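Box 4.2: Ligand-aware structure prediction
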Amino acid sequence: MKYTVILNGCSSSFISQAEEISGFLWDNIGKSMEGDTVIFYSEDEKREELIENSPTAFVRLIKITRYQPENVLAILKDLELNREVDLYLFSRDFAGNELSVRFAYRMGGSSLVSVSKIEIGKGMLTCCRPAYSNNMEAKFTLRKKPYCIAIAQGSTDHKLTLDTSRQVLSEVDMTNMSKGTFIKEYEFKGEEEASGLEHSKFILIAGRGVKDNKKMERLREVAKKTGAELGISRPVAMKAWAPMNRLIGVSGAMTKPELCITAGVSGAAAFFAGIEKSKYIIAINTDEEASIVKSSDVAIIDDYEIVLEELLKIIETSEK
Ligand SMILES: Cc1cc2nc3c(=O)[nH]c(=O)nc-3n(C[C@H](O)[C@H](O)[C@H](O)COP(=O)(O)OP(=O)(O)OC[C@H]3O[C@@H](n4cnc5c(N)ncnc54)[C@H](O)[C@@H]3O)c2cc1C
């Protein structure tokens, strides 16, 4: 059996990750398996320190510009495809958990995160992990190699007692790796500013019944033309048809407008709590059984598009 530890040398917690993995190896593997450590790093000044703190005697170094799951996975897959490693160990942090699952998928193996103990059997790896808030221990059997596991929090840390000499087996420079292979384009979106919905006098709210993002665009226009603030229900926020700061309900804004019009909203309790202090509620819904129909002042049972377009026409003619 062969194992490989994957560590993030770009992380400020590298040493604690290495110590935890070292403790895990000590408790679970000892010297019964042949192993090495792959360390991803970006700063030359740290190279020696990373090698010294490797949890195994054999080290392979990969220089990269940034530790991102996509580039790490692509590099690992290329380098590891023909190595026939049985077990990959990842650290317990967020990146370690993500990589263990995604790497197993790419290599056709099996994975488990938060592993506190392993037992190596014939054609399988038995793993224990805490369950039910640490009140129980669950046992899993992984059958497809390579086994890719991320260790559990609190795995004992040892001060690198397995071996003290370190040998660098290979060094690869991947700093020229093309970004274009996995990131087509990206845009940074800062935190949305507060929308001020809590103080609006007139709110038009879009629910899942609006159907899609394109139709949401039309609703935005209607809100603008009628002078309403746009609010949304949770499914609309989850589908990213509008920013999260427009969400109405217990997880978003609790409003008290003079007038509230809902379009394609069913009126679930978690939503309704956010509009129940409105002076006047008009609900537009195709389903007369929807709970919002019973809790609104006026309910229009029809397609919201027809109703809102009619409303716009009335506003436009009254302006002439
Ligand atoms: C802990 C927790 C917190 C939550 N917090 C919130 C929260 O803060 N805000 C929130 O919104 N939700 C919240 N939810 C979710 C909430 O329970 C509902 O699932 C959600 O409000 C439903 O959104 P909706 O009414 O848009 O969608 P749906 O319930 O799917 O309703 C869509 C409605 O559109 C109608 N419709 C369809 N087509 C048309 C049409 N052409 N014209 C007119 N009507 C049409 C349908 O008849 C239906 O009534 C929370 C849930 C949980 C568990």
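In the box above, the bound molecule is flavin-adenine dinucleotide. The first strand starts at residue 2 and ends at 8.
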